[in-house]
Specification:
The complex is a heterodimer. By secondary structure, chain A is mostly helical. Chain A has helices at residues 2-7, 10-15, 17-50, 54-68, 72-86, 95-121, 124-132, 137-167, 179-190, 193-222. Chain B is built from eight helices and no strands. Chain B: It comes from Bosea thiooxidans.
Chain lengths: 232, 228
């Protein structure tokens, strides 16, 4: 048994279990809040990108291009150092709040793209029929377009959620104590890289497998409706 | 004001250029090595060899399921710690290997789904004219599949360029790291310096993104369902 302890001493990991738990809670919190906010912002981005008003679409398209063509790490630095200068009330924010803001701003364009593709996949006739019935624009979205778009959107949205959860690891660089930070702490106090980094790798892998399972479940559950049959 | 910023840019230009070159080299090594490895894995995976499919699937999921930062720590701290002499590499080698292996998982998925997108009748017709499995693959399926990989591969290239920023945490002196060093010289201009860094990344990545979109419209693409 001693070779296991040499390679991976789980007793050390057990000593740090509360730190790993705290870190995991922070990771899931950051990912959860960013997920909700970025889906909401993503819906807005999708609606703007689908609108015909160029003065509305252009600035949002520029923002989307900027997010897609620059590294998340640099975006995190820009938000972390830039937001307090831009918004005076952000000066009192915690590191976690800056992290969530950066992740939301980074994730929203990707969510928006998925949602836009979902909305566009709803046949035009559905929208026109709803118009013919005298529904207002919000009603058409709420009762006709979004429920159908949802079926196509959910699996890739869950995939993007997996990316978002992985991206929270970068918050360790702006000193948010999340899951990766717990591993870094163990390594800096005990100099045991195996126990530190294999543990966090396994932790992230566990979350990923849960999300993957949900994605497959969602795909199977939503495969029924007829509007899914034609596209793929 | 403008003059002050201009002076900073002039003073930093040589360092930023050096950083950009390092980003360029690392990303090119990542894309070339990662594509070769990923292509091989993707082709093997598409052949549905018993036993291998599951193994390669596990490889891809392990790389997909963990953050690149964590993978980098594994290659930088854990592998040199194993005691195997050829694994005790320096930070630059660790970064190259980590980036290439990370890339290979994405490329493998793209290649495998592009091969799956080629109509099965093509392969059947090739069988009917007496081609062997390898001949079918090489002369019939791959030429059609590779066309479909161009657009998503450009997307992967952009993803690699963006991932190289993370290499700054193990001390690779690429663009982001050069920015951090520059901030030690101009601590009051953090925001401006990161703005310049972001602009340089944008100039590198945006044309590739436009090319990807253009290719996608022109030849279409086989987008793996799971690719971010």
């Amino acid at each position: 048994m001693s070779w296991i302890l040499d390679f991976y001493n789980y007793k050390i990991v057990a000593q740090y279990l509360d730190r790993f738990a705290t870190g995991m809670a922070a990771t899931l919190t950051a990912a959860g809040i960013s997920l909700v906010l970025s889906v909401l912002l993503g819906i807005l981005i999708a609606l703007v990108m689908l609108s015909k008003k160029a003065w509305l679409r252009r600035p949002v398209a520029a923002y989307v291009a900027f997010i897609r063509a620059t590294p998340l790490l640099v975006q995190i630095y820009l938000v972390y150092y830039g937001l307090p200068a831009l918004l005076p009330f952000a000066k009192s924010w915690s590191d976690m709040a800056f992290g969530v803001a950066a992740l939301t701003l980074n994730s929203a364009p990707y969510m928006g793209e998925i949602i836009r593709a979902g909305i566009e996949s709803v046949p035009r006739g559905q929208f026109e029929a709803a118009k013919g019935l005298g529904m207002t624009y919000p009603q058409r979205l709420r009762y006709v377009v979004l429920p159908q778009a949802f079926a196509i959107t959910l699996p890739p949205l869950l995939g993007q959620t997996a990316v978002l959860i992985k991206d929270t690891s970068l918050l360790s660089i702006i000193t948010v104590f999340e899951f990766t930070s717990a591993g870094i702490l163990l390594n800096s106090e005990r100099v045991r890289p195996n126990e530190s980094f294999l543990t966090i790798a396994l932790g992230y892998l566990a979350i990923y497998l849960v999300v993957l399972l949900l994605t497959n479940k969602a795909r199977a559950a939503l495969a029924g409706p007829a509007w899914n049959a034609g596209g793929r | 004001m403008v003059e002050r910023y201009w002076n900073i840019v002039v003073a930093l230009a040589p360092f930023l250029w050096k950083g950009f070159l390092e980003t360029l080299i690392v990303s090119l090594v990542g894309v070339v090595a990662g594509s070769l490895l990923g292509f091989l894995i993707g082709v093997i995976r598409s052949q549905r060899v018993a036993g291998l499919t599951g193994l390669l699937g596990a490889y891809i999921h392990c790389l997909r399921g963990t953050p690149f930062l964590v993978q980098l720590y594994l290659f930088y701290f854990v592998l040199p710690n194993t005691g195997i002499s050829w694994l005790s590499w320096d930070s630059r080698t660790a970064a190259f290997v980590a980036l290439s292996i990370y890339t290979s998982s994405y490329v493998a998925e793209i290649v495998a789904s592009a091969i799956d997108a080629v109509p099965v009748g093509q392969s059947e017709a090739a069988t009917a004219v007496g081609m062997t499995r390898l001949q079918r693959l090489w002369h019939v399926v791959l030429p059609q599949a590779l066309k479909l990989t161009v657009a998503p591969m450009s997307g992967v290239y952009v993803m690699i360029i963006k991932s190289t920023a993370i290499l700054s945490v193990v001390g690779i002196s690429e663009l982001t790291r050069q920015g951090e060093i520059a901030i030690l010289r101009y601590p009051r201009d953090i925001l401006f310096i990161y703005g310049v860094i972001a602009a340089i990344y944008f100039l590198y990545c945006y044309p590739v993104l436009r090319f990807a979109r253009w290719m996608e419209k022109r030849v279409g693409s086989a987008r793996p369902t799971e690719l971010d």
